[in-house]
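Internal tracking record. Fields below are filled automatically when a chain is submitted to the structure queue. Please do not edit lines marked as system-generated. If the sequence contains nonstandard residues, flag them in the REMARKS field before resubmitting.
Queue: standard
Priority: normal
Entity type: single polypeptide chain
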Amino acid sequence: YLWTTRDMKLLGYVGDSLEFCKLGLFCDAEFAGDQEDAKTTSGIFLCIYGPNTFSPCSAVFKKQGNVSQSTCESEIIALTLGLKTEGSPALDIWDLTSSFPVVGEPPQKPWLHVYEDNQSTILVAEKGASKQLKHVSRTHRVNVMWLSQVLGAPDIKLLYVPSALQAADLYTKGFSSAEKFNELRMLSGVWCQDKLKGLTSFQ
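SYSTEM-GENERATED OUTPUT FOLLOWS
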């Protein structure tokens, strides 16, 4: 694997001051993707981004402990995992860095943008309840109301992202299309060295 991917580079660049940067948390799930036990895999991708900034921070893929009954359910579990393990800890670190501003810059308020590509999941997460998901506290040990309360914080914003731009999709399943795989890989900051030659702008 290392030999065949030796031309791959993890790319990050910074061209903005802290006041123009945000934390981006991408959460996704491949419903019943495991053909043996029909369990779902959660995918998480965290980065710092701005108009002229992109820095990958972490990526997670984890098989869910129980079988989900719907895409919405599997996405809720992935969203909870992302906020608990990556999003909230990242905000704590952001608090520390923003409390010591660069000379001439005001203290910056932390801001976490959470990206989800399923509209039903967004509605349930914002509402904090769903008749179809009453069982998840027992089967997955996930509290949907907790998720709603966390997303209601003033420094967190839940946003819709088209599936084609869902960077976390890379970590949920295998791909039969090399083109699709390469597109998602670049969204996560992994570029082929040939594509970087002569590149002068990342807009």
